[in-house]
Amino acid sequence: MSKVKDYLKKREYPSDDINDIKVRVLDIQDRVYDLIGAMNTLTVWMEQTMNDSRDAKIRIREMQDIVHDLQVRVLDTQNQSHNLISKTEDIKVRTKDTQDRIYDSLWQQKTSTHQRDTMFWHLFKKEGESELDAKKRFFLEMPKAQGTTRLIQELMISLLKKVDHVCKQNNLNYWIDFGALIGAVRHKGCIPWDDDIDLGMMREDALKLEEILRKDESVKVRHVIVNRGDGNGAHCVMQVRWNDLDQEGLLNNLDIFKYDYCDERENMWDAYQEERLQLVELSKALPTTIPRNENEEEYPEIYEELHAVFDQAVKEADARLGITFEKNKRIIFAIDNCRILKQRLYQYEDVFPLETLEFEGSMFSVPRNYTKFLEDFYGDIYRLPEDMLSHTHLVHSEKGDEMLEYLVNKHKDDSYDTSE
Q1: Is 332 helix (H, G, I), strand (E, B) or coil?
Q2: Rounded-to-integer distance, Cα 165 and Cα 157, Å
Q3: For residue 134, what pLDDT is reported?
Q4: Angle, vertex CA 162, rays to CA 290 and CA 259, nearest 5
């Protein structure tokens, strides 16, 4: 017993050591609590991470589904593209086949038409008569138009006599042009199925004629810009009609096409066509006109804008082309006329001095080389016509033939000297 007490006595610590131990124990306890807190925080973080991970997995799956859907769509689009390409190729093949068939048909038609014409002229011509003489006789022997068409032609003829008279009085040059020129050469008058008369004039003379006719109460003259939104683009038309036709709402008039002088630069017609195309493009931004509003007096706001832009554009185009009022070596179809593709560019000597031909029993002016005018634009004017039933320029008025006949008889009383 005493040994135990001695042992215990030996194991006793000083009071300072005990306090130090207590401090250490408390410090360890704090560290343990901190560790427990950290463990709790770690546990919460791990749980959150696991939740985020599950959410991320869900999102990843969603993205994978989207990507897969896109892949499917891309594949489908590729398949559709391949199908479209195949269909396009098929369409190209079919189009080429259709074109070949059309060309074959046209060639056969051309061949058959040629054969028909050859057979017709062979049967028509008289013994000892050349084919050309037979063709000339055929057209000269054609009967004149009847009914409404003839009444309109007679109105135009009386108006032509009026213009011819004014031009002679004022030393202005004009010539019969386009289809009317065919009529003068081939029929010595109007083509039986045609219903208008076209004239050509140098610009300076056309403007002088307009100034004179505006003072004449018997006629109506206008210099109107037409822009119908088609491939022609805006173009300027000088028209003359009897004033009482205008009052009655009848649309029959002479169309006067202007010509200009130009120099002998190379590729003039190509440059002309490029300028004309620029006018066509410009026209797309301009107000459009339609037959019912092609009247400067009734729609001044339309024509004020048209003239402001179009006239300036024409002036600039003329400057680039070297167009002038002064006499020059060549004559060209004015750029502000309606657009035409076949070349109308002539040497001065092709036009002047003017010749005269018979037209409906009177003599009227034609270009000196009128054969070139016709062949360059129409080719062979003695081939059998294909437009005998379809050619028309005018929508005939509902006022009927009675009004036309009255006006024809009225203007027949106007007498003008149309001798050469």
Answers
A1: strand
A2: 12
A3: 92
A4: 60
What per-residue confidence (pLDDT) applies to 37?
66
pLDDT given for residue 324 in this prediction: 87
Q: Which tokens go with 44?
A: 């919460």
Q: To 5 degrees, how large is the angle CA 17–CA 20–CA 22? A: 110
pLDDT at residue 326 greater than cutoff 50: yes
**Which of residues 315 and 76 earns the better pLDDT score?**
315
CA separation for the pair 74, 61 (Å, rounded)? 20
pLDDT at residue 290 tops 70? no
The pLDDT score that the predictor gives to residue 7 is 46
Residue ranges per structural domain of the chain: 16-111, 148-412
Q: Would you state the structure tokens that stand for residue 198, as one six-digit string?
A: 């076209």
How many helices (DSSP H) and strands (DSSP E) are in the chain? 12, 9
Q: State residue 191 phi and psi, 5-degree precision.
A: -60, 130
* Sequence-separated (6 or more) residues with CB below 8 Å from residue 310: 225, 227, 234, 236, 279, 282, 283, 286, 336
Question: For residue 165, is pLDDT > 80?
Answer: yes
Give the separation between CA 38 and CA 255, rounded to whole angstroms. Answer: 104
Per-residue tokens: 250: 């009848």
Residue with the two structure tokens 């082309």: 321
399 vs 179, residue with greater confidence:
179
Mean pLDDT, to the nearest integer, of 25-30?
A: 71
- Going from the C-alpha of 42 to that of each of 37, 107, 218, the distances in angstroms are 8, 93, 111
52, 355, 357, 383, 420 from 140: Cα distances, Å: 102, 20, 14, 14, 22
Q: What is the DSSP letter of 293?
A: G
Helix (H, G, I), strand (E, B) or coil at 339: coil
Torsion on CA atoms 206, 207, 208, 212, rounded to nearest 10: 100
| pTM, two decimal places | 0.70
Radius of gyration of the chain measured on its C-alpha atoms: 47
Backbone angles phi, psi at 198, to 5 degrees: -110, 140
Question: Is the pLDDT at 312 greater than 70, yes or no?
Answer: yes
Encoded amino acid at 52, one letter: D
Q: Which residue has the tokens 């002229």?
A: 121
